[in-house]
Fold Esterase.
Amino acid sequence: MNALDYLDIKIKDVSKEKVTLTMVIDEKHLQPFGLMHGGMNAILIETATSIGANESIDTTKQVAVGLDIQVNHLKSAVKDDTLTIVAIPDHIGKTTQVWQAEITNQTQQKISVGRCTLMVKSIS
């Protein structure tokens, strides 16, 4: 099982210019106090930006992987909230890419924002 399946992250839209994911928060996403674990924001941001970065390369020869991530937690999220994650590129280079992402809840409130730098690596 991969992380998207386990965490119930749904891919809604994928292109070189924009990636949109959704996730409904359930018990597995919560920390002991009933709020979504902050690490989920990082997972969602890195997932969306990685999917987008890999759209811009030949994945038979290269792979884009996370090199650095910054996440700002802006608002708490709780069980049954529906999150939407939108990632767009700031820079698409030959060896690095920089993407930004925003997570909103069902009422369009920002839950988190972040940036991810990805390394484009040759595979053999």
